[in-house]
Design brief:
The longest helix has 44 residues, at 2-45. It is built from 20 helices and 18 strands. The strands form 4 sheets. It has an 8-stranded parallel beta sheet. The protein has a 6-stranded mixed beta sheet with strand order 9-18-17-16-10-15, sandwiched between helices. Helix 16 packs across helix 20 (575-586). Strand 4 (164-165), helix 7 (190-206) and strand 5 form a beta-alpha-beta unit. The protein is an alpha/beta fold. The chain folds into 2 domains: 53-375, Glycoside hydrolase, family 3, N-terminal domain (TIM Barrel, Alpha-Beta Barrel), CATH 3.20.20; 405-586, Rossmann fold, CATH 3.40.50.1700.
Length: 600
């Protein structure tokens, strides 16, 4: 009985402790919300109408490309006008941080810093570990690593005081001719795009930054780049509901904090461009879909919206449509003037509407602690280029590359490579790197090109294959011992150059044709049109394994696709992908990827 009494007492104490914790945490959250609300209202009360309007503006900057005049304008926009935030375009990390530290010091209210980093900060800063583009990520079999990547991207952003990432792209790329989205999408499958975008978004937001779903209402089935013109989506409302809007509904349901408006013409919804359309921004996104977060435009300098209106008129039209943040207006000073005049003329109702939008922005800043009296926006730049290279992030980038390698065809059975075969490696349009960089001072490591002699720089994939040849042949890789020989071609090669390489290939058992697209986004012309016939003769004679470091859509452009001995898609021409592709060829790993789009 005594033991039972003790157990009952302990049970009661545990229950009381649980209740106390719940109440305390709840009260703590209430106190935090109350404190942030008070900070927002205090800051808002101190602002003039012009300063409130300026909080809606996000300008672009980088310390590397733009002129002294642009730097002076940025100083004015930040230090005098008090704009709400900045978008980082492209930069060197130390320069960026020094400049941001300087600009944050100028700003009366700390700046929200945003980045268009669809596959992480490495899209804009070369110092960060390089994550794959979304289409390559669409080759994953499951979404678990997407959540991990989102957490890693958030951590990277926080290390350098970036608060907003304009990602994920939730456009469903069902049009192979799409010139601007394709490789930026998770693919053509509605459910996969939705599921993968959800995991990536949640990872970023759980990691402490703001994610942004784009490009509403959907930019996947277009053949015009909205940077250069106005895409038209001539679809019924039923089709839009079942396809374009589908992933956005999921993102809203799952709590995404920001949505970006695309510049699109959708006659079924409105005659106006979507980013400046009240029926689309307010009627559809806010009221019908129930999104109560931040609505941001795509860049207002893009021709999809800027060809027929003056910059200030565009900004005012977007504001009237219901947008909260105006990204990159063509003339920010004129836009501030225009909005200030229109809102002042609108009286108390217009001021109250402006206050509500500014509250949203200030609330974001409060959540980052930016309205605290002791908040400092300064970032320590000491050894920053090395500090951002975290080992776990590097390991994740390699894991993503390895799990997305996609073996489209292996009907010849040549993959994995037979160690006893003589292999010719033909690199087309490759960026060469010095030998030994990847594998250290292995005795005798050198490339051999029978057409031109020894070479001192090759691709990383070739070096990995060569390392395996060295391992098989002992400590040396001489012309006689090494069974993997290197040939280099590029878009400037003549037809005679291709013919000369082709003549040598008869000496080999297996030919690897590695085609490289540095951006991984080209659909056409990855191979020079003049070379297609000459390479076609090579393919017909030798049935090579094609290793394609480019957009899967590029495969459909190859007239000799069905004559290849094997096809391995490596997506982007990154070092991680080259290393992963080599491991597939040598049998060190399996190719687990699945094509995210149709190519035949």
């Amino acid at each position: 009985m005594k033991n039972k009494s003790i157990r009952e007492t302990l049970g009661i104490l545990v229950m009381l402790a649980f209740i106390f914790t719940v109440v305390w945490c709840g009260k703590s959250e209430e106190r935090k919300a109350f404190r942030m609300n008070r900070q927002v209202e205090r800051t808002l009360k101190q602002m003039s109408t012009r300063e409130k309007v300026a909080q809606l503006m996000v300008s672009h900057t980088d310390s590397y490309v733009f002129s002294d005049q642009h730097a002076l304008l940025t100083d004015t926009l930040v230090g005098i006008e008090g704009i709400g935030g900045l978008l980082i375009i492209q930069d060197s990390l130390p320069r960026y941080l020094n400049r941001m530290n300087e600009l944050q010091t100028m700003s009366k209210v700390p700046l929200l810093i945003s980045i268009d980093g669809e596959w992480g900060p490495s899209m804009r800063f070369g110092e960060f570990p390089f994550f794959p583009q979304q289409m390559q990520l669409g080759a994953l079999e499951s979404d678990s690593l997407l959540y991990e990547m989102g957490l890693a991207v958030a951590e990277q952003c926080q290390m350098v005081n970036i608060h907003i990432n304009y990602a994920p792209v939730v456009d469903i790329n069902i049009n192979p001719k799409n010139p601007v989205i394709h490789a930026r999408s998770f693919g053509e499958d509605r459910d996969k795009v939705t599921k993968f975008a959800r995991a990536y978004m949640k990872g970023m937001q759980d990691g402490g930054i703001i994610a942004c779903s784009k490009h509403f209402p959907g930019h996947g089935d277009t053949e015009v780049d909205s940077h250069k013109g106005l895409p038209v989506l001539p679809f019924s409302r039923e089709r839009l509901d079942s396809m374009e809007l589908y992933p956005f509904r999921d993102q809203i349901k799952e709590g995404v904090k920001m949505v970006m408006m695309g510049h699109l013409h959708i006659p079924a919804l409105d005659s106006a461009v979507s980013s400046i359309s009240y029926p689309i921004v307010t009627g559809l996104l806010k009221e019908e879909l129930g999104f109560d977060g931040i609505v941001v435009t795509d860049a207002l300098t893009m021709k999809g919206v800027s060809e027929h209106l003056e910059p200030a008129e565009i900004a005012l039209a977007a504001y009237k449509a219901g947008v909260d943040i105006l990204l990159k207006p063509g003339d920010i000073l004129a836009s501030i003037d225009c909005l200030e005049e229109a809102i002042t003329a609108g009286g108390e109702a217009a001021i109250a509407d402006l206050d509500n939008r500014v509250r949203k922005i200030l609330k974001m800043k409060a959540e980052f602690g930016m309205l605290e009296k002791n908040y400092s926006a300064q970032v320590d730049t000491t050894d920053i280029s090395n500090r951002v290279k975290k080992a776990e992030h590097i390991a994740l980038t390699q894991e993503l590359s390895e799990k997305t390698m996609t073996l489209v065809d292996n009907h010849s059975g040549l993959i994995p490579l037979d160690a006893s075969k003589r292999i010719a490696y033909v690199a087309y349009n490759a960026k060469h790197i010095p030998l030994r960089r990847e594998y250290g001072d292995i005795e005798g490591l050198s490339g051999y090109n029978p057409a031109t002699g020894m070479v001192d720089s090759t691709t990383l994939m070739y070096q990995h294959l060569l390392k395996e040849a060295i391992r098989r042949n002992g400590d040396k890789a001489t012309k006689e011992a090494c069974e993997v020989h290197y040939f280099a071609l590029d878009k400037k090669s003549s037809k005679k150059d291709i013919a000369a390489v082709e003549k040598h290939l008869k000496e080999y058992d297996v030919v690897i044709l590695a085609c490289h697209d540095p951006r991984g986004r080209s659909r056409k012309d990855m191979i020079h049109p003049d070379h297609l016939v000459a390479l076609g003769r090579l393919v017909k004679k030798h049935q090579p394994i094609l290793v394609h470091f480019g957009s899967p859509y590029g495969l459909a452009e190859l007239p000799w696709l069905n004559e290849l001995g094997g096809i391995l898609v490596g997506y982007q021409d990154s070092e991680n992908n080259q290393r992963a592709a080599a491991k597939v060829l040598t049998g060190e790993i399996e190719a687990e990827g699945v094509l995210p789009v149709s190519i035949r």
